[in-house]
Amino acid sequence: MASPNAVPARFISSVLVLSALACLPLASAFEGRHAVDPAVSLEALRGRKGVPIIKKERSGGRIMVDASAVLSRVSVERLLSESLKFDEYVAMGMPHLKASRTVRYDQAENMIHVWSHMVLSAVGIPLSSKHYLRVHKLPTGSEWELQPKRPEWPFPEDSAMDALDGSWFVSATASDEAYVRYWLSMDPNVAAPIVDTVVGSQLQSGVQKVIEALARRAAL
Length: 220
Known about the structure:
Elements: H1 9-22, H2 42-47, E1 53-59, E2 62-72, H3 76-82, H4 89-92, E3 97-106, E4 111-122, E5 125-138, E6 141-147, E7 161-174, E8 177-188, H5 192-217
Antiparallel strand pairs: 1-2, 2-8, 3-4, 4-5, 5-6, 6-7, 7-8
């Protein structure tokens, strides 16, 4: 007979499952991000004429934005290829970007190493970040994350980010039409209220500008 003070096995199992989930990386909640977002309707996106639906979430100091759009009269191949032309990002009009340079391309691993100088504005004070990214080239887009500077790389590293990762996904939906998804997760080294009110809003508008810039380059 069980003790009246015994903890039910089902409860213990639930606690263990919840504890394990809490220990998962934040990105695990978006592990399906390199695919069409099942929460959005393609028909609804078509009606927005290229304007993305953007979702924003906050967890601790990290803020995440997830944007989906359907673009018409574009080349899927160019949406993919133009997204990897990092040395042309400033000329493309990518937001918050002062400089972008490819420092290494590991063709065998489909890995591109990029240096970026990003500037956001936090309550009128520039938040500058000079960092390196490891970009994994995929058949349907790319994924990236911060990486440490290597001794042979020439550009300075002065990162304002505790974490920075994201992805770009492209899928043809019809002739001359494509679904695109841009996902970005950032943990800037600033106070939480600034993340919410300033950095968060800039990221949200910035994601839309990224999609617009790549759509212009891929236009037919």
